[in-house]
């Protein structure tokens, strides 16, 4: 602390003390027009520019937001201490930490299950099946798109997009036109599919955990999400190359317990929903209980490994099947904690940085100003549509967290609208969603920001039509 105190004092001297409203203990300070407020905004802006340049700088996105969050809260802590309001800042900090902790544990369990399915070769088996059926480019375009749409509500849209991209890259070969259109299609499909499920995207999960929309009410967004994906896909399908891709036949044997892990994941989701619906507890309680299912199943796999190996080896020797002997790796033991270590920690830490940065800006008063402008002076419908457009430039996670922190008074229809727009609005630009950013790296230059931008008007058509369909189908929810 002794090293940082002189720096904080120097920074405080640079701040406009006149702009700090005198407050009683327990009240927040008005800092939106102060030096500390402007400095915090500048820090967050610079950090987010570095996040958007991650692909070019090779700098992991968690680093700048973690640093910005630390500096912002250090400045807030010092200024609040000087005004005798330390308890206010402390409670605000604890509130934001609790919000993050619930989402962290929830996502950690989901990522662990996805990693376990990947390790048991479920995704490899799906990829091998798709590449061995002799589909042409048009069939693969639609197959990968619809699979992305229907897998992302269960897995997250990032994992789904990467899986489908691996298939496209494998069968597309050097056909850049097909790979580019297929990747755009996958990004739009994964984002649209994630919008009608609490598990499809972090933003929908945040809205569900905040209690604004019930679990089954997300299904009201199903048809709008279909329209959001289908319209751009129909237009792009006319520009696909003709012909057949090079087919690669590959045998993939699932590892022991693969299908049962899928069943346990479904049971985990049911448990999470039950905790929320029956007891009004955060869904993370059910997810952590679901992690215990996976841990006990891992214990079962380890304890029965020797018997399973002996049985398979005996059968293979009796049949003279040398290939089966070589494939005995399918019964390797399963380690849950190794799967946890494979979670996308950069994303989880990035999320922490974003939550804390936005929480700090909220305490400084900026979210109150935005809320006053968008949700008091504007119609909530136009405010929610603007949120979707904003999420194409800034990641939808901080945008949605900012909306939830504002806590505007809205109907269920409007909460569903902002869930839809924040989820699918990121498809307008390649940098607007984690799926788009990830595929720019995974496609090795065959899917780029500019190539996506050329199709933005068509994607925007799907965005507008999905909103209109939601307003028409679910008009009763806006009352």
From TrEMBL:
The keyword Cytoplasm does not apply. It is a multi-pass membrane protein. Pfam families: CitMHS. Residues 48-423 form the Citrate transporter-like domain. Its main location: membrane. Residues 1-21 form the signal peptide. InterPro entries: Cit_transptr-like_dom, NhaD-like. GO terms for biological process: sodium ion transport. Keywords: Antiport, Ion transport, Membrane, Signal, Sodium, Sodium transport, Transmembrane, Transmembrane helix, Transport. GO terms for cellular component: membrane. It comes from the Bacteria. One of its GO terms (molecular function) is antiporter activity. The chain crosses the membrane at residues 31-53, 65-80, 221-240, 261-279, 285-305, 348-369, 381-404, 416-443, 455-473. It is found in: Membrane. Belongs to the NhaD Na(+)/H(+) (TC 2.A.62) antiporter family. This is Sodium:proton antiporter NhaD.
């Amino acid at each position: 602390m002794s090293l940082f105190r002189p720096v904080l004092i120097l920074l405080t001297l640079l701040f406009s003390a006149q702009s700090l409203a005198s407050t009683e203990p327990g009240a927040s300070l008005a800092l939106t027009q102060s030096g500390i407020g402007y400095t915090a905004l500048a820090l967050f802006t610079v950090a987010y520019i570095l996040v958007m340049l991650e692909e070019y700088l090779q700098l992991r996105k968690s680093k700048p937001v973690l640093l910005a969050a630390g500096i912002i809260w250090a400045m807030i802590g010092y200024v609040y201490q000087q005004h005798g309001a330390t308890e206010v800042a402390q409670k605000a900090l604890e509130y934001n930490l609790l919000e993050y902790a619930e989402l962290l544990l929830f996502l950690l369990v989901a990522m662990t299950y996805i990693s376990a399915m990947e390790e048991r070769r479920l995704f490899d088996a799906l990829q091998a099946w798709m590449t061995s059926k002799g589909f042409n480019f048009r069939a693969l375009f639609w197959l990968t798109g619809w699979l992305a749409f229907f897998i992302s509500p269960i897995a997250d849209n990032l994992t789904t997009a990467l899986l489908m991209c691996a298939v496209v890259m494998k069968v597309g070969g050097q056909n850049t036109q097909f790979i580019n259109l297929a990747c755009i299609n996958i990004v739009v499909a994964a984002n649209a599919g994630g919008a009608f499920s609490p598990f499809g995207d972090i933003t929908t999960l945040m809205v569900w955990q905040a209690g604004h929309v019930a679990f089954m009410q997300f299904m009201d967004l199903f048809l709008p999400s279909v329209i959001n994906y289908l319209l751009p896909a129909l237009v792009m399908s006319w520009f696909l190359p003709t012909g057949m891709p090079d087919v690669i036949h590959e045998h993939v044997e699932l590892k022991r317990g693969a299908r049962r892990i899928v069943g346990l994941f479904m049971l985990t989701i049911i448990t999470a929903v039950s905790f929320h619906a029956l007891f009004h507890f955060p869904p993370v309680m059910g997810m952590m209980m679901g992690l215990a299912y996976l841990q006990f199943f891992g214990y079962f796999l380890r304890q029965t490994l020797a018997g399973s190996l002996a049985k398979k080896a005996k059968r293979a020797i009796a049949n003279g099947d040398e290939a089966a002997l070589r494939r005995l790796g399918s019964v390797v033991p399963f380690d849950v904690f190794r799967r946890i270590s494979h979670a996308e920690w950069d994303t989880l830490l990035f999320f922490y940085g974003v939550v804390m940065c936005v929480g700090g800006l909220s305490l400084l008063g900026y979210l109150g100003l935005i809320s006053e402008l968008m949700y008091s002076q504007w119609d909530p419908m136009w405010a929610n549509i603007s949120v979707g457009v904003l999420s194409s430039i800034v990641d939808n996670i901080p945008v949605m967290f900012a909306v939830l922190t504002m806590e505007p008074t809205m109907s269920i229809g409007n909460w569903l609208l902002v869930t839809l727009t924040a989820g699918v609005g990121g498809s307008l630009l390649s940098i607007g969603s984690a799926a788009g950013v990830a595929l720019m790296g995974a496609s090795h230059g065959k899917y780029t920001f500019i190539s996506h931008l050329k199709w933005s008007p068509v994607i925007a058509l799907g965005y507008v039509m999905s909103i209109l369909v939601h307003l028409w189908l679910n008009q009763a929810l806006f009352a």
